[in-house]
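Table 4 source record.
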Amino acid sequence: MSRAFTLLELAVVIVILGVIVSIAIPRVTSANENALLNAAVTDFRQLELALRMYHADHGAFPPNSQLGVFPPELKGYYSERAFLAGPTLGGRWDWNPTFGPVTPNITMEQNPPDVDLWLRFDERYDDGNLRGGKVWRHNTRYLMWQIVP
């Protein structure tokens, strides 16, 4: 008597493995995107918290900073290294107390922008509209996070 697998048994195993893989890959991809979006909102919230703490201590927000330049007033409130490393979604940070359609705001510059990812980010953490609420798309490559009083 032969102890080898038959062609039919091998085919059944291959089909079962194919079904398992077809179920697992979208879940892994979804988990990666969830982790990315969670990290991105954490980035914005930590920077917002630093700015709010500065405001509480000084009665005003720090002055405007240039794109990708760490506002020196935030030393002791936020890590310069983290600021210069940029947001999880890529690009560079910018602090704008008086610029753009929503002020004050933290801006993430991304070139080229991943607008589909930005929309999923907005759907999860705001109102699903990149032209309203707390999260805004400004021009072509800026995602703004409004600091609402």
